[in-house]
Amino acid sequence: MWRNILNKVNKVVAYIPPILLYGLESRQLSNADLRSLDFTFNRLFMKLLKTKSIDVVKTCQSFTGSEVPSCVLKRKTDKFISRFNCAKILFAIFVARCNVSVKYFIFSS
């Protein structure tokens, strides 16, 4: 019985968060939106485990190594912003080395 539940939990952890969070790292979400994502994820665990206790759900989530979507989204957003800033810096270096004005480079095509 537990093996079956653990298999379901592992599938949920593997498939659901990427679907829920697809593309959201580039958006600014309100706290209500983040709470809604977390509620959906926790509610799914409650249904899988057939419990109404959030403590049981949190324990199971920590045991399986799954994080609530708001934590995952925070980490992914930080990574997205750092890569975006790096790309802006690399673009500025490229333009400076090519000795081309930004206005000409952007609007010439």
Features:
mainly alpha; 5 helices; 109 residues; single chain
Describe the structure.
The protein has helices spanning 2-21, 31-49, 54-64, 69-98, 102-107. It is mainly α and 109 residues long. Helices cover 79% and strands 0% of the residues. The protein is elongated and about 65 Å long. The protein has a domain at 2-77.
Uncertain segments are none
Strand content: under 5%
Task: Return the string of H and E elements.
Answer: HHHHH
Helical fraction equals over 70%
Euclidean distance between termini CA atoms:
62 Å
Question: Rg from C-alpha positions?
Answer: 21 Å
The structural class is: mainly alpha
Strand and helix layout:
Layout: H1 2-21, H2 31-49, H3 54-64, H4 69-98, H5 102-107
Helix pairs in contact: 1-2, 2-3
Summarize the entry for a quick read.
With 109 residues, this protein is mostly helical.
